[in-house]
Amino acid sequence: KENLLRNISNKRNQKKNMVSFSKKLEKLTVSDSSIELKAQRTYKKRKEEMLEIFL
Fold this sequence. Notes:
The chain is mainly alpha-helical. The protein is 96% helix and 0% strand. The protein has one domain. The protein has one helix at residues 2-54.
Protein backbone atom coordinates (compact mmCIF):
# COMPACT_ATOMS: atom_id res chain seq x y z
CA LYS A 1 0.00 0.00 0.00
CA GLU A 2 2.74 2.47 0.91
CA ASN A 3 4.50 1.87 -2.39
CA LEU A 4 1.30 2.53 -4.31
CA LEU A 5 0.77 5.84 -2.49
CA ARG A 6 4.37 6.80 -3.12
CA ASN A 7 4.02 6.04 -6.81
CA ILE A 8 0.90 8.20 -7.07
CA SER A 9 2.57 11.14 -5.34
CA ASN A 10 5.65 10.75 -7.54
CA LYS A 11 3.50 10.85 -10.66
CA ARG A 12 1.80 14.01 -9.41
CA ASN A 13 5.16 15.64 -8.76
CA GLN A 14 6.38 14.67 -12.21
CA LYS A 15 3.31 16.30 -13.74
CA LYS A 16 3.92 19.49 -11.77
CA ASN A 17 7.55 19.50 -12.87
CA MET A 18 6.55 19.00 -16.48
CA VAL A 19 4.10 21.91 -16.31
CA SER A 20 6.65 24.26 -14.76
CA PHE A 21 9.26 23.07 -17.26
CA SER A 22 6.98 23.74 -20.24
CA LYS A 23 6.17 27.19 -18.84
CA LYS A 24 9.89 27.93 -18.53
CA LEU A 25 10.37 26.72 -22.08
CA GLU A 26 7.58 29.01 -23.31
CA LYS A 27 9.21 31.97 -21.58
CA LEU A 28 12.54 31.07 -23.16
CA THR A 29 11.10 30.81 -26.66
CA VAL A 30 9.23 34.09 -26.20
CA SER A 31 12.39 35.89 -25.11
CA ASP A 32 14.30 34.31 -28.00
CA SER A 33 11.75 35.52 -30.56
CA SER A 34 11.74 39.03 -29.05
CA ILE A 35 15.54 39.11 -29.26
CA GLU A 36 15.28 38.08 -32.92
CA LEU A 37 12.73 40.84 -33.56
CA LYS A 38 15.00 43.41 -31.94
CA ALA A 39 17.92 42.22 -34.03
CA GLN A 40 15.83 42.47 -37.21
CA ARG A 41 14.73 45.99 -36.28
CA THR A 42 18.27 47.19 -35.61
CA TYR A 43 19.39 45.54 -38.85
CA LYS A 44 16.63 47.33 -40.78
CA LYS A 45 17.53 50.64 -39.16
CA ARG A 46 21.20 50.19 -40.00
CA LYS A 47 20.33 49.25 -43.56
CA GLU A 48 18.24 52.41 -43.94
CA GLU A 49 21.02 54.50 -42.41
CA MET A 50 23.52 52.99 -44.82
CA LEU A 51 21.20 53.74 -47.75
CA GLU A 52 20.81 57.33 -46.54
CA ILE A 53 24.59 57.67 -46.41
CA PHE A 54 24.88 56.45 -50.00
CA LEU A 55 22.05 58.65 -51.31
